[in-house]
Amino acid sequence: MATMISFDAAPLRRAMDANHDLGYALSHRLLRMAYERLERTRVQHLDLYR
To answer: Maximum distance among all alpha carbons in the chain?
Structure first.
């Protein structure tokens, strides 16, 4: 099950600029999630073409 959340970008960007640890942690998590989703898609496509 997927969950979607949204944030107002401007305040989030300001918070990340003001707190670099927050910015790093959030970026790291978002990139990890994107990587995992792309990896699952890649595996699904490999299974499809076997």
So the answer is: 49
- In whole angstroms, give the CA distance from residue 31 to residue 14: 19
* Rg of the chain, C-alpha, whole Å: 15
User: How much helix, strand and coil, in percent to the nearest 5, is found in the chain?
Assistant: 80, 0, 20
Copy the structure tokens of residue 36: 């995992």
For each of the chain's 50 residues, which pLDDT tens digit applies?
Answer: 678 888 899 999 999 999 999 999 999 999 999 999 999 999 988 877 66
What is the distance between the alpha carbons of residues 11 and 36, in angstroms, rounded to a whole number?
Answer: 27
